[in-house]
Amino acid sequence: MSNPPASSSSSRVTFASLTYRNLGTVKKLNSVLFPIKYSDKFYQDIIAPEVEDFCQLIYYNDVPVGNICCRLENNKDLYLMTMGVLAPYRSKQLGSQALKRVIKAAASHSKPKIRRIYLHVQVSNTDAKRFYERHGFKEAGIKEDYYKKIMPRGAWILERIIDSEDKQDQEKPEL
To answer: Is 109 marked active-site?
Structure first.
């Protein structure tokens, strides 16, 4: 018996806010997805009520397969700290859907009003850079020696300015 295609209507993508109950799942996913170990403070910060809309677990057919985590900075910026999807579930638009949810939430956020979303991408990760550029992010610079424990150490700084159109544009389905 073969698996249904990724576009099958039987495939269901859902999202869940991060809580103490699912934090172990996030830690396990991060240990597989990312080359660094995150601190206990990182995990406490991502379950704070003020980032509930910006930190989400990604489920595919009720299986946790990825997450996206952001933090508010300077009362006007949203910093995308981590976003990852397990390898077997990539190319199913899960990362795109998660990012669109965060962009829409940022555009709708009023206290504080979020001006931009930004992130760092390791300079060797051209696929990730292209992914974010497809979603309206632009290169804002390069930070040398951003990464301390992985090579190469440099990171692109990518940003997307949030405007009122982002509230509606994120509802359009991706073909």
So the answer is: no
